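Input structure tokens:
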């Protein structure tokens, strides 16, 4: 191979690796699912992994929790079909040097979602919330999620199966932003101010609930699938 071609190839590979490293740093859940931590993880059912050494009782509790979370989604929107990788961890050092959310996070790589559930997120509200992100991803596809679905809608839809009281707006609560529907990007929604972040989740929950009251919960999967087929978010979310 001529020297120039080898140089160009090496440059392209280096650029790709740098890009992948940057993406992994910004999306530690993807990297965590790829490396499965520094400690051995063992598979259970349906792409679920737990730390090695977990007791049979703990493993049964994990599967029961997943079942309850999926049942909540089924009771709200219909039978879920997404089959994400789900990793439960209790030791934050298992993924060093990555710093993961001790509650939970959902990342996306290719055609599959990856849920990382930490020690503070092992409850039905958090798990159902993250599974709903995976369900939306499964219905709209990778590019549909990136190019069409605003963050406020993604989070507001997930909040429909998340019943934590802290995200219920009190009557007469003063809005902290002009409109939650202006929060299209992650940098706008996921702010460092905890009170404002809680309001963003709560307001998104209300906004999506009002939309659902008009279109019906049973129409959601079909509407999301239209985005994968090429329809715009605005067209799909019209109430008529």
């Amino acid at each position: 191979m001529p020297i120039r071609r080898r140089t160009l190839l090496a440059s392209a590979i280096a650029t790709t690796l740098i890009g992948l490293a940057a993406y992994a740093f910004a999306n530690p859940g993807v990297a965590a699912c790829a490396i499965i931590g520094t400690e051995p993880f063992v598979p259970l059912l349906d792409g679920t992994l737990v730390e090695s050494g977990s007791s049979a009782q703990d493993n049964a509790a994990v599967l029961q929790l997943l079942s309850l979370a999926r049942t909540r989604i089924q009771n709200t929107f219909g039978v879920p079909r997404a089959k994400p990788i789900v990793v439960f961890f209790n030791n934050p050092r298992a993924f060093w040097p990555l710093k993961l959310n001790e509650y939970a996070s959902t990342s996306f790589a290719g055609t599959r979602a990856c849920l990382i559930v930490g020690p503070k997120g092992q409850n039905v509200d958090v798990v159902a919330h993250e599974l709903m992100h995976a369900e939306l991803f499964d219905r709209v596809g990778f590019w549909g999620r990136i190019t069409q679905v605003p963050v406020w809608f993604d989070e507001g839809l997930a909040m429909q199966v998340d019943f934590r009281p802290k995200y219920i707006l009190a009557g007469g609560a003063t809005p902290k932003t002009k409109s939650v529907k202006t929060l299209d990007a992650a940098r706008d929604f996921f702010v460092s101010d905890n009170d404002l972040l809680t309001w963003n989740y709560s307001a998104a929950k209300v906004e999506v609930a009002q939309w659902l009251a008009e279109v019906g919960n049973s129409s959601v999967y079909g509407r999301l699938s239209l985005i994968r087929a090429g329809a715009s978010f605005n067209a799909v979310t019209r109430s008529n």
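Strands lie at 41-43, 48-51, 85-88, 104-109, 112-117. DSSP finds ten helices and five strands in the chain.
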